[in-house]
């Protein structure tokens, strides 16, 4: 009723739809996303792994909800199995999760719309590579007010779907042939790469992608647990420098 | 319930060694980006760093896999990636087509050569 009145008062603008409508549109976008399928396959693998290791299912499900980063979860479970001290595991997880800083910082100004700090902090927990990749593609055409509910719908679908798939993997454990299990694990690099290629419309994205891939075997020669950070800083910095140079000449 | 109980310890690990060292970076990034505009120069750099970092994650998964995948020869892993990229560009730039092409090579290769 009030909506009709508001719409009547703003004939020039497109009518604003409710946050709930945009939340469900985000969830539906997740349902249609290849990234979602790949993500779920990864969590099926995770569910199988924790059963092999003897990590409790409840704690694994909790990790999917409150950590929401598969590499970090693998470090926790692996560290648990190896009997590593908790501070060592925490340090390894921290190093692997530093990547969320540029990922969240680059996406939050895009998705925050009108939302306040509290909502942004809450939403940041749902940012993972999957939601980052899909949001960069799907969010920019949306009106500002629609972006946060759309993102929350998309990322909540990914997260809760992954919780279910952790259970599915736990139940399926040991029943998959080796080659298929290898295929499940390999879904992650193939799909990440193809989606980065799809999203790389500008020169800077292409440079960052190519430099990052090329630099990895080089940096690996030197070893060390910080190598991903070096790759990000050097390859990302170089891509930015190329882009700056190109823009200055234009 | 005590620290020596492995079940309780697993939950504690998830909270202290998983949630805290992960979300601290998510929250810090929100505070950092609060006053930045969507089109600001800093964000262009930050996004390039995020893309390069992800490229590094991908390359590491392919070149230095852990667990069972390490038993699949490197050339098959590289052939799978090549098939995926070729499938993507040849079949209407479809991510799904590329993923399927790459999966056929990796699963087939694992059956034949591992």
Describe the structure in your own words.
The complex is a heterodimer of chains A (250) and B (114). Chain A is globular and about 55 Å long. Chain A has helices at 2-9, 19-31, 34-53, 57-66, 70-82, 86-97, 100-111, 117-124, 129-138, 144-172, 178-199, 203-222, 227-249. With 250 residues, chain A is mostly helical. Mean pLDDT of chain A is 88; it is low at 1-12. The termini of chain A are far apart. The longest helix of chain A has 29 residues, at 144-172. Chain B starts with 5 loop residues before the first helix and ends with a helix. With 114 residues, chain B is mostly helical. Chain B has a domain at 66-114. Helices cover 76% and strands 0% of the residues of chain B. The chains are: A mainly alpha (250), B mainly alpha (114). At the A-B interface, helix 4, helix 5, helix 6, helix 7 and helix 8 of A face helix 1, helix 2, helix 3 and helix 4 of B.
Q: Quick summary of this structure?
A:
Chain A is mainly alpha-helical and 250 residues long. Chain A has helices at residues 2-9, 19-31, 34-53, 57-66, 70-82, 86-97, 100-111, 117-124, 129-138, 144-172, 178-199, 203-222, 227-249. Chain B has helices spanning 6-33, 41-63, 74-90, 95-113.
Helix and strand arrangement:
The complex is a heterodimer of chains A (250) and B (114).
Chain A: H1 2-9, H2 19-31, H3 34-53, H4 57-66, H5 70-82, H6 86-97, H7 100-111, H8 117-124, H9 129-138, H10 144-172, H11 178-199, H12 203-222, H13 227-249
Helix pairs in contact in A: 2-10, 3-5, 3-10, 3-11, 4-10, 5-6, 7-9, 9-11, 12-13
Chain B: H1 6-33, H2 41-63, H3 74-90, H4 95-113
Helix pairs in contact in B: 3-4
List keywords for this structure.
heterodimer; A: 250 residues; mainly alpha; 2 domains; globular; disordered N terminus; B: 114 residues; 4 helices; 0% strand; flat
Helix content of chain B: over 70%
User: Helix segment count of chain B?
Assistant: 4
What is the arithmetic mean of pLDDT of chain A? 88
Total domain units of chain A:
2
Mean pLDDT of chain B: 90
Regions with little confidence, pLDDT below 50 for 5+ residues of chain A: 1-12
Radius of gyration of chain B: 21 Å
Strand content of chain B: under 5%
Identify the quaternary structure here. heterodimer
How would you classify the helix and strand content of chain A by structural class?
A: mainly alpha
CA-to-CA gap between the ends of chain A? 53 Å
Report the principal-axis shape of chain B.
flat
Strand content of chain A: under 5%
Molecular shape of chain A: globular
Give the number of DSSP strands of chain A.
Answer: 0
Give the chain pair forming the largest contact, with residue counts: A-B, 94 and 77 residues
Are there runs of chain B of 5+ residues with pLDDT below 50, and where? none
Task: Please give the number of β-strands of chain B.
Answer: 0
Order of helices and strands of chain A: HHHHHHHHHHHHH
Number of helices of chain A: 13
Gyration radius of chain A, rounded: 20 Å
């Amino acid at each position: 009723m009030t909506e009709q009145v508001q719409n009547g008062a703003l004939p020039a603008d497109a009518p604003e739809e409710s946050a709930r409508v945009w939340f469900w549109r985000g969830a539906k976008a997740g349902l249609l996303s290849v990234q979602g399928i790949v993500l779920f396959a990864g969590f099926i693998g995770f569910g199988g792994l924790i059963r092999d290791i003897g990590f409790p299912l409840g704690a694994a499900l909790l990790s999917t909800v409150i950590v929401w980063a598969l590499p970090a979860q693998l470090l926790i479970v692996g560290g648990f199995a190896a009997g590593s001290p908790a501070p060592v595991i925490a340090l390894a997880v921290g190093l692997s999760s530093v990547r969320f800083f540029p990922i969240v910082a680059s996406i939050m100004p895009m998705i925050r719309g009108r939302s306040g700090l509290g909502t942004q902090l809450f939403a940041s927990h749902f940012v993972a590579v999957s939601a980052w990749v899909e949001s960069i593609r799907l969010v920019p055409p949306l009106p500002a007010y629609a972006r946060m509910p759309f993102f929350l719908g998309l990322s909540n679908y990914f997260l809760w779907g992954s919780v279910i798939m952790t259970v599915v993997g736990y139940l399926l454990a040991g029943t998959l042939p080796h080659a298929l299990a290898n295929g499940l694990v390999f879904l992650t690099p193939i799909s990440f790469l193809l989606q980065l290629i799809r999203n790389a419309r500008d020169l800077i994205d292409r440079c960052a992608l190519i430099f990052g891939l090329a630099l990895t075997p080089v940096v690996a020669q030197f070893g060390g647990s910080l190598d991903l950070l070096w790759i990000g800083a050097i390859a990302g910095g170089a891509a930015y420098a190329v882009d700056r140079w190109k823009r200055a000449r234009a | 319930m005590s620290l020596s109980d492995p079940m309780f310890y697993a939950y504690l690990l998830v909270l202290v060694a998983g949630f805290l060292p992960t979300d601290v970076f998510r929250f810090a990034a929100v505070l950092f980006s609060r006053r930045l505009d969507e089109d600001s120069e800093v964000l262009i750099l930050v996004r390039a760093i995020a893309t390069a970092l992800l490229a590094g994650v991908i390359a590491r998964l392919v070149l230095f896999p852990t667990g069972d995948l390490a038993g699949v020869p490197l050339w098959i892993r590289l052939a799978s990636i090549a098939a995926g990229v070729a499938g993507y560009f040849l079949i209407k730039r479809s991510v799904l087509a590329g993923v399927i092409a790459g999966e056929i090579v990796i699963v087939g290769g694992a059956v034949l050569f591992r």
